[in-house]
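S., here's the first fold you wanted:
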Amino acid sequence: MTSRDVDRHLHVVHSAPPSSGVSAPTLVDLARVFDPARLLQARRLAGRTKRSVAEELHVSPTAVSQWESGVTAPRPDHMGRLADFLGVPVEFLTAGRPYARLEADAAHFRSLRSTPARERDKAIAFTEQVWELTFALEKRVQFPPVNLPGFTGGEVQHTDFPTEPQAAARALRERWGLGTGPIPQMVRLMEKHGIVATLVSFAGGATKSVDAFSTSRLPRPVVVLTPDRANDVYRHRFTAAHELGHLLLHADDAPGDPVREKEADKFAAEFLTPSSSIVPSLPPRMDLAALDVLSGEWGVSVDSLVYRCREVGSISESTYRRAFQRLNQLRQVGLFRPQPATAHPGEVPALLSRAFDVAEADGFTITELAREMHCSVRRVRMLLGYEDSRPALKPI
């Protein structure tokens, strides 16, 4: 499956309307249409507390709370200072555009307990913006339909689909016509079936604790993958399959439940390496060289295959522990080194960027997209995955 498989599902719907030529609104005008929810979103995106906002604007934290709850509205001069401090255009803080509010308990964070609340809030606000970008693009480009069993506009309801993880993985493979062989491109496969995925450093170093998360509570399922896991393509693929398991199995469950996390792992293992195919291929005794060959064929880590060996009883618990000790030793001398996801076509999300490419070919510009979302062009480029990886030139 190549990126063209996604392109075939993207069709122009219509072009953006031309600019109306209306003069820019004043701060007084914008204050009249202040949206409390947008202030909360902007604050979370910036990783700021209410107290820090209050100190910057020389108001009380209570005043900021009242702004966010809609009890009162900020003065026009406060609007401008809020926007400057939070790093958004002042129009961002106004009403009048679609907004899908996502609660923290509606997203499955893989590392929930080790992720500080402020970083989770930032990740949630980022996901809301990903949906908003998707909505803006879907007005102009027809996306692949969501093909996730039981999913309907932000809800997953199962009637006759398996809920046991391994059975669900086998059933989804059958539904998607995958057979029982290796999956060449895990992330592209999800995008082909209408799941929005993203892989950007939206929170600086905070993504190391955020790790990865997903939600099925938006009009399209969203999976957020982070660059910290993408430095190992096999770990990255397993993470994507793990989040797919959450989308399919745990739509209404509280995030962070260790039992649900283990279920998602079981789903991912069976989805990537079906037992009926992988078990007969496993060596009868521990053989890291043989497992390394299988690793390349199936796109999973040697670690995962060692776990599989223990799972089917071909190795003892002590052999299992020694295998990981040996793997750690080999990695310390430069063997079994991970490969980045960026070196593997189909493992870096492309649905959103290719959707914009299609819209752009029809005359839609990134400046118009930024204006519609009330964001900076730089922010929109980041959401699309167009991050500038060049090192910054420091002033002399």
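And the second, which I think is the more interesting of the pair:
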Amino acid sequence: MLSLETFRLFIHVLAATVWVGGQITLAALVPALRAAGAEVPKAAANAFNRIAWPAFFVLIATGVWNVIADHNQNHGSWAAVLGVKYVLVLASGGTAYAHAHAKTKKQMAIFGALTGLTALGALFVGMMLAA
């Protein structure tokens, strides 16, 4: 039977799959996209952004919902780990925004790498919170 908790966690994991998994997939495809044409990577990134940003905001909303639902755990080490997750989520969104608005290839590379690393970090820390 489907519970509200199961639905909440499913939506959160689905959004994380799009945000994190999509970044990994797109990064792996960049060499092939470049070979297809100079503008192809940018077009693919723009298409990805149409689903990635809504997924990011769903992650934030369901993340808040998760914290509210697990309010009895909001103390001690759990709260400290949650604080780390907040920092990583903000860094992931901020560096993704910077990547999308980068003016040079160097900026794109740096912010792209930081976005991926912080997204993976947030995913890992989220698993720590759920364990």
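Why I say that: The chain has a mean pLDDT of 94. The chain has four helices and no strands.

Talk tomorrow,
H.
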